[in-house]
Amino acid sequence: MLLTHTPARRARFASAVALAFVTPTLLLSACASTPSTTSMHDPASAPGAVYAPETLAPGRYALVVLGMSCPKCISNVDLQLARIEGLRDAKVDMRHGLVTFSVPGPTHPSRAAVSQAILDAGFTLREIRRIDAEGGAS
Amino acid sequence: MRFMRLASTTSARVLARGIACSPLIAVGTSHAQEMLSMPAATAPSPGVLIPRVQARAYFYEDGQSLLEQDIRLEYGLARDVSISVDLPLYQGFFDPPRPSDGEFGLGDLEAIVELRVLREDLDTISTLRAAVYAGAEVPTGTGGFGGDSFDPCVGGVMTGIFGRHGVDLSGRWTFVTGDGPFLPIFATDADDDFANVDLGYAYRLYPSEYGEERVGAWYATVELNTVWTTGGEHEVLLSPGLLLEAPTYAVELGLQLPISSETSDSTADARPELRLGIVAGLRLIF
């Protein structure tokens, strides 16, 4: 095993370990200091989007989502949205890149929680729209 | 990513066992258009655990064969950070017989930390993603399978999905710090460092366009899986496959066809020549 190796091989082993584990640590640190990488769309910067840390009023909503490229994406979105209290009946329409759901109340999820869920699922949230008779786009 | 290693009595018995065993252990979820024999720049969401199992049957010259059951667990630590462990299980049938012939043996466990460095969603379907990863192979092998050393590795992978087309490009370098198995099977079993370079393409056969209903998607895939060692060995496999991916499960079936191989003097006598590999996998999503 390692103890029987020559000094040169031990040195090479040590440098390989350093390269293997230091590199991702540095990358991780870099990403941690930058909350949102430039490649990820911030919903607040999307044209027409209104993004604020407020709660969603009872009603039906549609999320405009980018990057849902396969059926697996449906499960990813389902899993993340299911963790949000007060959000019901989530449905994914891959053709149009829409995720619809209801907020029946009395618990009102926050826009931030919905946005985080889509980002955590691995996709880009472009917009949150209210689609029932009450709202129009909100 | 043990599946990146390249490889291949009774061939029918091996194949039947492989196909029979795979669904027994298969639980978990699938990854977006993930190829059969190379990594993709996809990762589980935070807090999500993804088990994956594949069965592989390798057929070598003179009727020799090897069955591999590959168990992989992947866990999302944060939005763009995941860890995975991969443990292969082998059963070989070789001529002349090896000490472990006919018995199951563990291969080397592999642990990987992956960091997604790019996510650019281009439209409702299309996306471009990239990840870098690092980890190591841990000498857990038994029965003559696996090496005797802790071998670090680094790599990167890029995945692009553009409508019905998907492309994966992956590269990895493994630092071999000890000796390989006493009797080598794979091109990576020598005590030389090696590189894996893989290129994959997937085409969505059905549906041509997604509807509003939840449907499974059929993909035809083709990969070029290559390994190059510092000792001068190389192996190039062409790997066509078929993938059915639904919201709650995925089924995959593929072949691995050797198209170029070069062995070094030190392993030429011991390492059997691969003729064909067959891959079958079943993934479930909870």
Brief characterization of the structure:
The complex is a heterodimer of chains A (138) and B (286). With 138 residues, chain A is α+β, with helices and mostly antiparallel strands.
Textual characterization of the structure:
The complex is a heterodimer of chains A (138) and B (286). Chain A has 138 residues and is α+β, with helices and mostly antiparallel strands. Chain A has 2 domains: 2-32; 43-130, Alpha-Beta Plaits (2-Layer Sandwich). Helices cover 35% and strands 20% of the residues of chain A. Chain A is built from 3 helices and 4 strands, in the order H-E-H-E-E-H-E. Chain A is globular and about 70 Å long. The termini of chain A are far apart. Mean pLDDT of chain A is 72; it is low at 1-5 and 23-52. Chain B has one domain (2-284): Porin, CATH 2.40.160. Chain B has 1 helix and 13 strands, in the order H-E-E-E-E-E-E-E-E-E-E-E-E-E. Helices cover 5% and strands 53% of the residues of chain B. Chain B is globular. Chain B is mostly beta strands. At the A-B interface, helix 1, helix 2 and helix 3 of A face strand 5, strand 6 and strand 7 of B.
What would the CATH topology of the largest domain in chain A be? Alpha-Beta Plaits
By DSSP (H or I, 4+ residues per run), the number of helices of chain A equals 3
- Strand-residue proportion of chain B: over 45%
Distance between the termini of chain B: 22 Å
Q: Provide the succession of SSEs of chain A.
A: HEHEEHE
Instruction: Give the tally of β-strands of chain B.
Output: 13
Describe the largest sheet of chain A. Answer: 4 strands, antiparallel
Question: What number of domains of chain A?
Answer: 2
CATH top level label of chain B: Mainly Beta
Which structural class matches the secondary elements of chain A? alpha+beta
Following the backbone from N to C, one meets helices and strands of chain B in this order, namely: HEEEEEEEEEEEEE
What share of residues of chain B is helical? Answer: under 10%
> How many domain modules of chain B?
1
- Give the oligomer, counting copies of the same chain as homo and different chains as hetero: heterodimer
Task: Choose one word for the global shape of chain A.
Answer: globular
CATH fold-level label of chain B? Porin
The fraction of residues assigned to DSSP E strands of chain A is 15-25%
* Radius of gyration of chain A, in angstroms, nearest whole number: 22 Å
